[in-house]
Amino acid sequence: xxxxxxxxxxxxxxxxxxxxxxxxxxxxxxxxxxxxxxxxxxxxxxxxxxxxxxxxxxxxxxxxxxxxxxxxxxxxxxxxxxxxxxxxxxxxxxxxxxxxxxxxxxxxxx
Length: 110
Known about the structure:
By secondary structure, this protein is α+β, with helices and mostly antiparallel strands.
């Protein structure tokens, strides 16, 4: 494996990866983006807290007027509910209470 320093760079660099194999993962302890094309691979390790913030911002910016965003939000909601269901009872109850109290309100309470 070869490591390279992408920065500082004198020019702007763009990688169009829409036709490449992409694997993006984030968790509490590690986050990475891997891009593959045949036998070549680029892995970028990311700060997980920064990525979690970006994911939350991206979800908040989805436009629920678009069908694809509605479908995505529904799938995301199902995944979140499934993960919450794995929590201990006290934490699960707190999440359920939050959902019931905030679902039909125009302002979410933190």
